[in-house]
């Protein structure tokens, strides 16, 4: 790597690192419009999605011996550094002690980037085609659950994820981490429940709400049109306002002692029922 132009920081008490660690706080993220992305795979996915970091902090002592992170062939850590350098990203090299001051994950791989916060205004979010599929997460408390839902939404080909009355922000580093960077590959927007209800109605999107208070199974609804699937918080589920706006209320059958699933798991179950239906009903017919 061409390191001659890189800034090197060895002291954990460096003021620049104090400001960087401040991005773990929501208030600082909102004030600066920036957040943190840590990890080779997450940074690469953000870059592939068109997000160019402002600064990359690295500690080569933490790179894996092969330069690779994980079993998939996603390139090496030095290759990603050079790709970012070629894009004009500022590179700052850190000592292990300095990197430990700003790292927020266990088993770090020595790569941490500062990027602009994600998310688009709800009103600017477009809806194309007759088979738009969205996920609405209302009041989800845990960043890890929100991130896991983003990862599932990306895998399921969801067109957008909407946070209704959000408890956490999209830039929360644990949302980024749990999403494995897929946060940057999906359109995401936030709003009040009323704003999202109005937006869905304006775009003629059917709302399917998960709740245990119904006899309709999640497999009994047609998901092949314009549909948004809504899940609520772990503690309370969706609220009465969202339930009242539902075109369909559905439940996932429970056969054990537990009466509910983790919210990210519930979202995955219903989303993949939509994927299954779309694959079977929207596939082109075989030629005669």
Poorly predicted ranges = none
Structural class based on helices, strands and sheet pairing: alpha/beta
Secondary structure tally, helices? 10
- Range of strand content: 15-25%
The shape, in one word, is: elongated
Q: What profile does the largest beta sheet have? A: 6 strands, parallel
Gyration radius over CA: 21 Å
What is the topology, as strand order, of the major beta sheet? 8-7-6-10-9-11
Q: How does this model look, in words?
A:
Residues 135-272 form the tRNA/rRNA methyltransferase SpoU type domain. This is RNA methyltransferase. Keywords: Methyltransferase, Transferase. One of its GO terms (biological process) is methylation. It holds the Pfam family SpoU_methylase. With 288 residues, the chain is an alpha/beta fold. It folds into two domains: 7-116, Ribosomal protein L30/S12 (60s Ribosomal Protein L30, Chain: A); 122-281, 3-Layer(aba) Sandwich (Alpha/beta knot), CATH 3.40.1280. Helices cover 33% and strands 18% of the residues. The chain has ten helices and eleven strands. The protein has helices spanning 15-21, 26-32, 40-48, 77-86, 96-102, 143-155, 173-178, 193-202, 240-245, 263-281; strands at 7-9, 34-38, 55-58, 90-94, 111-116, 133-138, 160-164, 188-191, 206-210, 227-231, 248-250. Strands 8-7-6-10-9-11 form a six-stranded parallel sheet, with helices on both faces. Strand 3 (55-58), helix 4 and strand 4 (90-94) form a beta-alpha-beta unit. Helix 6 runs parallel beside helix 10 (263-281). The mean pLDDT is 91.
């Amino acid at each position: 790597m061409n390191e001659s132009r890189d800034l090197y920081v060895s002291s954990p008490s460096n003021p620049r690192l104090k400001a960087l660690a401040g991005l773990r706080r929501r208030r600082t993220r909102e004030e600066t419009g920036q957040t943190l992305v840590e990890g080779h795979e997450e940074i690469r996915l953000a870059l592939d999605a068109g997000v160019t970091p402002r600064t990359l902090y690295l500690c080569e002592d933490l790179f894996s011996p092969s330069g690779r992170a994980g079993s998939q062939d996603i390139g090496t850590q030095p290759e990603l550094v050079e790709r970012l350098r070629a894009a004009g990203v500022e590179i700052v090299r850190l000592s292990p002690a300095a990197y430990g001051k700003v790292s927020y994950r266990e088993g770090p791989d020595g790569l941490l980037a500062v990027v602009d916060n994600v998310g688009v205004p709800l009103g600017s979010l477009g809806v194309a085609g007759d088979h738009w599929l969205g996920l609405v997460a209302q009041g989800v408390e845990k960043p890890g659950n929100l991130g896991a839902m983003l990862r599932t939404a990306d895998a399921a080909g969801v067109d957008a994820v909407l946070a209704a009355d959000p408890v956490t922000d999209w830039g929360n580093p644990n949302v980024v981490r749990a999403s494995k960077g897929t946060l940057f590959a999906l359109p995401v927007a936030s709003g009040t429940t009323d704003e999202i209800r109005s937006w869905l109605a304006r775009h003629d999107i059917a709302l399917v709400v998960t709740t245990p208070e119904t006899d309709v199974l999640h497999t009994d609804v047609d998901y092949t049109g314009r549909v948004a699937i809504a899940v609520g918080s772990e503690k309370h589920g969706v609220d009465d306002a969202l339930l009242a706006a539902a075109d369909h209320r559905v439940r996932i059958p429970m056969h054990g002692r537990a009466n509910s699933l983790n919210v990210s798991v519930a979202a995955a179950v219903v989303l993949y029922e939509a994927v299954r239906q779309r694959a079977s009903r929207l596939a082109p017919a075989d030629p005669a």
